[in-house]
Amino acid sequence: QKEVEQNSGPLSVPEGAIASLNCTYSDRGSQSFFWYRQYSGKSPELIMSIYSNGDKEDGRFTAQLNKASQYVSLLIRDSQPSDSATYLCAARGVSGGSYIPTFGRGTSLIVHP
Amino acid sequence: NAGVTQTPKFQVLKTGQSMTLQCAQDMNHNSMYWYRQDPGMGLRLIYYSASEGTTDKGEVPNGYNVSRLNKREFSLRLESAAPSQTSVYFCASSSRTGTVLNTGELFFGEGSRLTVL
Questions:
Q1: What is the pLDDT averaged over residues B36-52?
Q2: What is the spatial distance between Cα B32 and Cα B62, in angstroms, rounded to a whole number?
Q3: E-strand stretches of chain B
Q4: pLDDT per residue over A27-83, tens digit each?
Q5: Cα angle for residues B102, A34, B4 (degrees, 5° grid)
Q6: Nearest to A25 by CA among A75, A93, A76
Q7: Average of pLDDT values for B40-47?
Q8: Under a CB-based contact definition with an 8 Å cutoff, are residues A26 and A70 in contact?
Q9: Residue A20: how many other CB atoms lie within 10 Å
Q10: Residue from the list A32, A49, A88 with its beta carbon closest to the beta carbon of B43
Q11: Which of B34, B47, B89, B101 to mutate to probe the A interface, most A CBs <10 Å?
């Protein structure tokens, strides 16, 4: 059973701080990793994807991947109240011919002014 | 830019009634998915269709059926609704290629909120 684990939170950070969201996965065959943001009552939207060990930066967001430790993280710099949402981590392999991501349960982030 | 369109957005059913959730995508994606999302449970895969003409069970298929009508459309049917099926349902689609890693992003519809009394 493939599993993706996230701390449900809520993670509360002050405006302007760095928010650090973490995720671990069980399937060593996973090769692609995604972070989705989901506002309350809305659908998930992709904010970052990462495929190689190391860091990937996109604006205020940095995704970090460590395949040896089976660990993925998302850093949000200069956090804004508009970043308050649930962040879903997903992992996907390439076996079996189907590319079905497995999702974690999400971490709720609250950025307070 | 419609993306993934789901209908209806809201529905209230009585126990035992049937209904079909419709989903269509205009991105020429091969793969389509149906998820349900319950508080504290994250996204759970009900059924998926890796390509036109194929469907497979996901994590929680019991009580549901699906039809991949064509490349664009993937419907989810509840034959006899139960209160346990009260949930928010999301349809999603993605491109599907061979061994290219930088694919697999899911594009989600806006969701269908279903209440079964």
A1: 90
A2: 18
A3: 4-7, 10-13, 19-25, 31-38, 42-49, 56-57, 64-68, 74-78, 87-94, 107-108, 112-116
A4: 888 888 999 999 999 999 999 999 899 999 999 999 999 999 999 999 999 999 999
A5: 80
A6: A93
A7: 89
A8: yes
A9: 15
A10: A88
A11: B101
